[in-house]
Design goal:
The longest helix has 14 residues. This protein has a 6-stranded mixed sheet with strand order 1-2-3-4-5-6. A two-stranded antiparallel ribbon has the order 7-8. The protein has a single domain, classed as tt1808, chain A, CATH 3.90.1570.10. By secondary structure, the protein is α+β, with helices and mostly antiparallel strands. Helix content is 21%, strand content 28%.
Length: 156
């Protein structure tokens, strides 16, 4: 896998001709054109990880969005389910479904498939916190904080 990555929040992806989803967080390989995807959106070959932060949108993320990411063969998809305080991890897309499915509790740590040496904690401490404020404050969504978590080889 790549030794470098870019963490994006709320940026469109070029999944197929029918849609360009805008996930909460996406980890992508650096743009081969070197312009941080300013002239095109990342496509499935560029995407290392998609993260959805879900409260009332959980069913949609687990249904139509998961199906879309599976069909596009996105390498890994996480749904952070705020209300239930769980992380749903899907990886190894094949034959229209993800072969590896895990549901982890709030105390778990997880390593992205693309970065097995990186361990990310998903402790959700504020049960009534809104999705938008969670996204704004969560380490995966704040590039300054992410730079502190990722090895230098990932952040440049």
């Amino acid at each position: 896998m790549s030794e470098e990555a870019i963490v994006q929040d709320d940026k469109p992806l070029a999944i197929d001709e029918h849609g360009e989803p805008v996930p909460d967080v996406t980890v992508v390989v650096p743009d081969p054109e070197g312009d941080y995807y300013s002239t095109r959106h990342p496509d499935p070959d560029d995407i290392l990880l998609v993260v959805a932060v879900a409260d009332s949108s959980f069913d949609k993320n687990l249904g139509t969005k998961k199906t879309m990411y599976t069909r596009a063969e996105i390498r890994e998809y996480w749904i952070l389910e705020l209300n239930a305080r769980r992380l749903h991890r899907f990886s190894e897309p094949r034959d229209g479904d993800f072969r590896n499915v895990e549901v982890l509790d709030e105390n778990s740590r997880v390593s992205p498939v693309a970065f097995p040496a990186l361990s990310v904690g998903f402790r959700i401490c504020c049960p009534g916190k809104s999705r938008s404020s969670y996204i704004k404050n969560h380490a995966l969504c704040n590039e300054r904080k992410v730079r502190g978590l990722l090895p230098k080889s990932l952040t440049g």
